[in-house]
Design a protein that fits this description.
The chain is α/β, with parallel strands linked by helices. Helices cover 29% and strands 35% of the residues.
Length: 245
């Protein structure tokens, strides 16, 4: 999973640089959906990153665990959970070969987790997720839509310049994937800046291929919707809400 190496340097700054995405509102969307579909209270966030959703769902009364393939992300997640006094178990795992110490009532995988996998790996990854769920358990993930990746990320430059850190991302398309060359300039105590570079590769997934892979994995698709429940057409994210048969 290329996301493991991709977040070696970005992990420390990821949540800070994404403070405009409103994690609290986003988590309320998940909480409402989990209640709507009658999910239990014991959940796993796959691709948890620095653990924002884990912390917010824990605050809402869920018993959360978090898994990620990036050791740097897990280190940050553990530190932020301690800071909040949240009891969350974090462990390292790859979506393609996911194995867990227990079966969960639900698995959430938000914020592009499966965009880091090529289309050929989806069915295997979904099958492993299904094996980690109780019968009838909920599997909920999103992907960045082809619209977002091809129209907003490819052939663009993204920049975020702050006092402590400057973020630059140069996107380009190569076949079925978007390659983002990311550069961070991080301010040192002496006022100078250190430069760090890493590359992110995200795959463009077509809706029909995702639906087929879910079926192959024994998952029943309950709903497809855009970001925060908006219409799919033109949305930057596509949510797939599924149940283990």
């Amino acid at each position: 999973m290329n996301g493991a190496k991709a977040y070696r340097h970005l992990a420390e700054w990821f949540e800070y640089l994404n403070d405009d995405c409103d994690y609290r509102k986003w988590s309320q969307y998940f909480i409402g959906g989990l209640e709507k579909y009658g999910a239990g209270r014991n959940g796993l966030e796959l691709g948890c990153g620095s653990g924002a959703f884990c912390r917010l769902l824990t605050q809402a009364g869920f018993r959360m665990s978090g898994a990620d393939s990036s050791p740097e992300m897990l280190t940050k997640a553990e530190a932020l959970a301690r800071q909040d006094g949240a009891k969350i178990g974090f462990f390292r795992a790859d979506a393609v070969s996911l194995r867990t110490p227990e079966k969960y009532d639900f698995i959430l995988a938000p914020n592009d987790v499966y965009n880091y996998l090529p289309p050929s790996k989806l069915a295997c990854a979904f099958s492993h997720a299904a094996k980690c769920l109780k019968k009838g358990g909920l599997f909920w993930f999103d992907v960045s839509s082809p619209h977002k990746l091809c129209e907003k990320i490819a052939d663009t430059v993204s920049a975020d310049d702050r006092e402590e850190v400057t973020y630059l991302s140069f996107g380009r398309r190569e076949g079925d994937r978007i390659i983002m060359d990311v550069t961070l300039f991080v301010k040192r105590e002496d006022g100078a800046f250190e430069r760090y570079d890493e590359t992110h590769v995200q795959y463009i997934h077509q809706e029909k291929d995702i639906v087929a892979a879910l079926s192959d994995a024994g998952l029943e698709l309950l709903s497809e919707e855009g970001h925060l429940g908006e219409a799919k057409e033109g949305s930057d994210r596509l949510n797939f809400i599924c149940k283990k048969r």
